[in-house]
Amino acid sequence: MAQQDTDQQHAGVLPVDDEGYVIDTEDCEEREAAWRERGTSRPITVVGNPVLHKECKDVTDFGEELQQLVADMFASQRTAEGVGLAANQIGVDLKVFVYDCPDDEGVRHVGVVCNPKLVELPAERRRLDDSSEGCLSVPTAYASLARPDYAEVTGQDEKGNPIRVRGTGYFARCLQHETDHLYGYLYIDRLSKRERKAALKQMAENEPRYPVVAND
Fold first, then answer.
1. Pick from 89, 71, 79: which is nearest to 32 by CA?
2. Residue from 107, 63, 64 nearest 83 by CA
3. How many other C-beta atoms are found inside a 10 Å radius of the C-beta of residue 160?
4. Could you name the active-site residues (predicted)?
């Protein structure tokens, strides 16, 4: 049920702060567990699967089917020990991702974003962080990738309410990574040809620690 606290001036699932961004750091354990316990873990699609390499469809129906998908995504994310998961990573062609991710201060963030769009940052706010990045859809492979250390995403929550999410450091990387997924981009698509080849070699030489969908 959507929150009804009119003092918040927000009818969404999560409360918002004074600047209009969702407060996704409260009751994280309870909220994540409530989703996950209703869900069924699904295997992860891997690079090469067509659903990962095209823009997903917009979410237009915020009914029970979407709620079950989100629950399955949280369950799948926990099985794979990930910090973010896009719907196409379990084979569903819809613009929705979930996250359970700490920022660089160790603060945990848990939430759902449908139809996300990254907010373009002015040049003066773009400070790049060249940290290592991995992906559940490119299992066992990691590579350094420069991304802004701050990110904002607009979209809708799982009930269709408009939301704004922001993050720094590792969480900022997560928001950018998962939004990329829903527009058909994997992090390895942002690497040089040599780095991409090296990442795919890492993946080929190791076994994933969670169930994956083999590409035919």
1. 71
2. 107
3. 18
4. 178
Predicted structure pTM score = 0.93
* Residue 181 among known ligand-binding residues: yes
User: Has 177 been labeled as part of a binding site?
Assistant: yes
136 vs 77: CA distance, rounded Å: 9
8: left (phi over 0), alpha (psi -120 to 50) or beta: alpha
Q: Is the predicted pLDDT of residue 2 greater than 50, yes or no?
A: no
Identify which of 170, 66, 68, 81 has the alpha carbon closest to the alpha carbon of residue 115: 66
What is the DSSP annotation of 126-154?
--EEEEEEE-TTSTT-EEEEEEESEEEEE
Residue 150: alpha-carbon gap to chain centroid: 15
9, pLDDT greater than 80: no
Where does 58-215 have alpha helices with state H? 64-80, 169-182, 193-205
User: How do residues 31-45 score in pLDDT, each as one tens digit?
Assistant: 999 999 999 999 999
Query: Which residue in the list 81, 178, 195, 207 is annotated as catalytic?
Result: 178
Give tens-digit pLDDT for 91-128: 999 999 999 999 999 999 999 999 999 999 888 778 99
Cβ atoms of 5 and 171 closer than 8 Å: no
Catalytic residue status for 37: no
Q: 135 labelled as ligand-binding?
A: yes
